[in-house]
Amino acid sequence: MIKVLHVLTDTNIGGAGRYLFNLLSFQDKDRFQIMVACPGGGELERQLRSRGIRVFTLDGGESSTNLGHIQKLRHIISREKIDIVHTHASLAGRIAGKLSGCKVVMTRHGLSSSNNGPVKRFITKVISRLSTDRIIAISRAVKINLIDSGVPANMITTIYNGIDLSKFENVKGTLREELSLAPDIPIVGIVARLVPEKGYEYAINAFYQVLKVFPSALLVIIGEGPLRESLKEMCVRLGIENNVVFMGYRQDVENLVADFDVFVLPSVSEGLGLALLEAMALGKPAVATEIGGIPEVIKHGVNGILVPAGNDKYLAEGIIKVLSDKNQAKMLGREAQKTVFQKFSSKTMIENTEEVYLEILQRV
After folding, report:
1. N or C terminus of the chain with fewer C-beta within 10 Å?
2. DSSP secondary structure string, 122-168?
3. Do residues 105 and 143 both lie within one domain?
């Protein structure tokens, strides 16, 4: 039995947490025993425990560089006889794993600034070599970003995000009933953390323009984050607060997305976008920014609409285009669903990840 300890720095469920749940969906339990270390007291810990996963809580909140975690992680690794430490941005986890003699894997979920000079690139290269055996990039864009920052290319394996497709069969929409919405009210939806890199301000400005064409439309925002109050204030300033609903964190996301008429991902930085894959799996036409790994999923005009990042005018035009042409919307949704079912299943992601585990364990 190979024992794997995942180390996360999130309290609630963001991209790394959802990635982990997809990774656990079809894990070979006869070969791998999975444990998780993460900050305690949040939704991530609760959801993991509810699924029977052993969780070790870390103090000190959400910090990838909390060196105080090193000793506790080393104790866990030693006591549980961990073989592989799989980190998700936790530098402390990587250090603890290496100091304990474990193999260390890191998954990079997003893009970072890669404007490193020669000195920073050299430091990144040395740290990567010393602290990690393999780095998993969730898209080609993330791999290129890592190489640009100084990570050696031969340390990186690209494994696309995958989702548990069984969750998206026969999904019943509940959003219209919950909000008492008539069938003819257009629903524009976003599922993402309320953080700067998701580009919410462009989506809200775009929706202001959409309302000029579709005055009864509703913007539904699913997710939590530090920008919640400022985004609400922005809606009030624009006078559109009655057409925007902030639903917070929800576990029943697929039942809500099932009632969207168009899914929007307005990110200004994006590794790939799990929420995008999930919406596409439900057959939703998507309007997304041409940034990071998104163009590796969406082909413009074939299975979705791509628009320049940071541009509310083009974002509004894309949304209006989808809402105005129901036949095209159905075609885009149908092709989107086909793309995800063919290329982005969690089974494929898990198999490829397990191959990485086995390969690094065979190294002397």
Report:
1. C
2. HHHHHHHHHH-SEEEESSHHHHHHHHHHT--GGGEEE----B-GGGG
3. yes
